[in-house]
Write a structure and sequence with these properties.
405 residues; alpha+beta; 6-stranded antiparallel β-barrel; 5-stranded mixed sheet; 37% helix; elongated
Length: 405
């Protein structure tokens, strides 16, 4: 959060977070950036993304603070009214009055998320004493970073208390305090702020220095949902969603659950047990298949040795499980003198290979394949693995002739 006194553009959203339209005078226009004497557009600040909307008939795609000015970044290639013959240079002449309108849906969603974050962070601080050391609010996520450890169970308890505060429909209090008036007031702040500080208070829950727009009543947040809790930089990162974004996420997850339940011909509550059962059965089947695959590869290799002879053996298979390939290689190298290699894939898609030997350095095979076909891979003398692109017949012939020479 920047010192409010360092920004010269008048922040109309401080006066009314619910206002959507305004008029202002142009102070400067360069390339696609406009500076006004006042604005309703909230810039990217304090971890929160910027407002979007329309200014002078052009989309506002970003808003940034630079050198104490709030700069509105416009998309000049897509005017709202393509028939308007006035150029951006005409509209944004220095001193000209222009009209602006923010994207209210985006703004209100940000207000719900940010106010919910204050309540959650305030409760964490009050109950556990942890500081919020990071906050990120974008179109995709809302994350809160704390300097202490939280479990999912603890986060869900905070979630319950936060939703109780939301249901209490507390009135948000916002005020500006100079250094003298801040004396004796406990409030959260990531920075040691000078001058006048804007403090947002949710009575009995949280008091925090903040530059962003907030809801008037906590009931407008609707609900708060914890999505995930993870260890992060020695502390905890919590992902949340509030209001309509939380509802949209719930709707999406409910849709997945309903579709899955219909597919499994089961009630939604039965899905976890069914999935666990299917996972266990799948693992067992994969193990059985791998064992059968390994036996098949071993038998095929032994047959090839009997029919073709030779010290080295290389098999090409369309498909085989990796564990089966390694198992077969280990079994065969214990009984064969030369190198044993199994390639899986196709000429079109490329080949994966595993090559093993009990007595020879298999890295020689990788070197040969790399020199001719640009193969990738490596390993230890007893076993290497990698991938190579090329024709099966050419790979086999070159590999055998090169290793014999």
């Amino acid at each position: 959060m920047q010192d409010a006194n360092s920004v010269t553009t008048e922040r109309l959203y401080y006066r009314d977070a619910y206002a959507t339209a305004f008029k202002a005078a142009v102070l400067s226009f360069e390339k696609n950036e406009v500076v006004l004497d006042r604005t309703l557009f909230f810039p990217e600040e304090g971890g929160q993304h910027a407002d979007h909307g329309v200014l002078g008939g052009f989309p506002v795609v970003d808003v940034q603070i630079s050198e104490g000015e709030i700069r509105h970044i416009l998309d000049l290639d897509h005017p709202i009214d393509p028939e308007n013959k006035n150029t951006a240079g005409d509209i944004f002449k220095e001193g000209a009055e222009v009209s602006g309108e923010i994207d209210w849906k985006r703004r209100f969603s940000a207000m719900q998320q940010h106010s919910g974050e204050h309540i959650f962070s305030g409760l964490v601080h009050r109950i556990y004493g942890y500081k919020n050391v990071g906050f990120h609010l974008s179109d995709r996520e809302v994350t809160l970073d704390f300097d202490g450890a939280l479990t999912m169970e603890q986060a869900l308890e905070i979630e319950e208390d936060a939703n109780a505060a939301i249901a209490d429909n507390l009135t948000t209090e916002i005020g500006f305090y100079d250094r003298a008036s801040r004396e004796g007031i406990a409030y959260r702040s990531k920075l040691d702020l000078e001058g006048e500080v804007r403090i947002v208070t949710f009575p009995g829950i949280d008091r925090c220095a903040c530059c962003a727009p907030h809801v008037k009543q906590t009931g407008e947040i609707g609900l708060l949902k914890v999505l995930s809790v993870q260890n992060y930089k020695g502390g905890t990162r919590v992902s949340i969603l509030c209001g309509m974004r939380a509802m949209a996420a719930f709707r999406e997850v409910h849709g997945w659950m309903t579709e899955t339940a219909n597919y499994l011909t089961a009630a939604a509550a039965e899905i976890p047990n069914l999935v666990r059962k299917m996972k266990t059965e799948t693992l067992q089947l994969r193990q059985e298949l791998a064992a059968a695959d390994a036996e098949r590869l071993t038998l095929k290799a032994e047959k090839t040795v009997r029919e073709e002879g030779g010290a080295d053996l290389f098999l090409f298979e369309e498909r085989a499980q990796d564990s089966a390939v390694r198992s077969a290689i280990n079994d065969l190298t214990a009984r064969q003198e030369g190198m044993i290699g199994i390639f899986t894939g196709s000429d079109a898609a490329g080949w994966k290979f595993v090559i093993g030997s009990g007595k020879r350095d298999t890295r020689d095979a990788v070197k040969v394949l790399r020199e001719k076909f640009g193969a990738r891979g490596g390993g230890k003398p007893v076993m290497v693995q990698g991938s190579v692109n090329g024709n099966q017949k050419e790979i086999l012939e070159y590999l055998k002739s090169s290793l014999q020479s």
